[in-house]
Amino acid sequence: MRYRQWRLGSGWMVVAAVLFALMGLFVKLGAKHFSSTELVFWRTLIGVLTLGGAALWRRERFATPLLRYHLQRGVIGYSSLLMSFYAIAHLPLATASTLTYTSPMFLALLSVVLLRERLPAQALAGLALGFAGVVLLLKPTLSGDVWFAGLLGLASGFLAGWSYLHVRELGRQGEAEWRVVFYFALISTVGGLLLMSLERWHPVTLDNVGLLLGVGATATLAQLAMTRAYKVGRKLTAANLSYLTVVFSCLLGALVWGDALTADSLLAMGLIIVSGMLAGRR
Predict the structure, then answer these.
(1) What are phi and psi of 66, to 5 degrees?
(2) pLDDT tens digit sequence for 190-219
(3) Where's the EamA domain (predicted)?
(4) How large is the angle between the packed helices 147-172 and 93-100, nearest 10 degrees?
(5) What is the C-alpha to C-alpha distance for residues 156 and 192, in angstroms, rounded to an integer?
(6) CB neighbourhood size of 55 (10 A)
(7) Dihedral over Cα of 153, 155, 161, 166: its sign
(8) Does the chain have fewer CB atoms within 10 Å around its N or its C terminus?
(9) How do residues 89-101 score in pLDDT, each as one tens digit?
């Protein structure tokens, strides 16, 4: 029975990794038609409608005593999402995905700084490897004309790690998983509307609506698959398998745009992936 659950959880995480990589593909293609702010807005709006509709159908309660945690997580997570989409639009897909996946490394670091947690030696070694990987990965980016996107990608990973602290606290308080995802999408959608009041909306046409639906559908399904993986499988195994998103992003980048990765880039990605795995062993 345990083996079956392990296989099922692993399978769901592989599905989630494929969907997250496809989301990056749709974001990069959609960047030709929409700004990063618009892409995030449409992505979260589809999530609000999907999750909200499902909750209404099941007659779930939307009220929560943990609104303050949701607001904090929502603002931090929305900022991370904006930076991540900008990085995806301006960097090779594999590079942007890897920078986003520095979040476990920053989560471990923030747990020490903010929560005064003590990390085992292997987690500390993972942090050192991770920062070495970041420097190696960003070295060519910072010397080129896309250095700003590289720094935003790294900042996205930092904010995502900070956001996960709030998610962990919401879980400890017993908050339902669907409400955690729903309120994040709702707050992000409202934030998108506020920011878009300062920008120009690009028209949604038959030529580009498929890209928006692709972003929203893959992101929502990926989150559901990831949640399922952590629920039915082993958390550590699921967390390690989540790094397959980087692998799938490499393949998509090579197939669609012919992105060529140098030996240094591959080594840097490997260091960051190993860092995340070690940092999660607590």
Answers:
(1) -110, 35
(2) 999 999 988 889 999 999 999 999 999 999
(3) 9-138
(4) 40
(5) 17
(6) 16
(7) negative
(8) N
(9) 998 898 888 888 7
